[in-house]
Design goal:
7-stranded mixed β-sheet, alpha/beta, 3-stranded antiparallel β-sheet, 164 residues
Length: 164
């Protein structure tokens, strides 16, 4: 089972979360700006994470990264998404970056897993909520860092049966 954690991080916060997730899964974490086509092709499972900027946008490096992923053959791969945001200061766009990744890859042939219920989160709105659940793991290192480890553990336990 080959797992690759791909992250976009400007301040280092998302990188730290990506490394925590990679450690739990025995995976490799790589910055989206540095990921190669060969790494993507060689992974059976892709864990994709981005910080959220502005009005719910992706971290800057992800725009080129998404083009690279959309050009790749993701058929048969498993994809899980995580996002890092600020639910207090950006309550109406919390972790919106996950939605951009999700929508870019939803018809890629990959199986997207790891939706998370919104219970226990304090925010007003998010493009990343579909049918009452986040499309992936939403984390708030600014206001709820005390919940991060528990949320990562629960999410990893949930997605692990789907990983090949």
């Amino acid at each position: 089972m080959k797992i690759l954690v791909i992250y976009g991080s400007t301040t280092g916060t998302t990188e730290g979360v990506a490394e925590q997730i990679a450690d739990k899964l025995g995976a490799t974490a790589v910055n989206v700006a540095d990921v190669t086509d060969e790494q993507i092709a060689g992974a059976d499972n892709l864990i994709l994470g981005s910080s959220t900027w502005g009005a719910g946008e992706l971290q800057d490096d992800w725009y080129d990264g998404l083009e690279k992923l959309k050009a790749a053959d993701l058929s048969g791969k498993t994809v899980a998404i995580f996002g890092v945001g600020d639910s207090a200061s950006y309550s109406d766009t919390f972790c919106g970056s996950m939605a951009e990744i999700y929508h870019a890859l939803e018809n890629s042939g990959a199986q997207i897993v790891g939706a998370v219920p919104t219970d226990g989160y304090q925010f007003d709105d998010s493009a990343s909520v579909i049918d009452g659940e986040f499309v992936g793991l939403a984390l708030d290192e600014d206001n709820e860092s005390d919940k991060t480890a528990e949320r990562i553990d629960a999410w990893v336990k949930e997605i692990t049966p789907y990983l090949k």
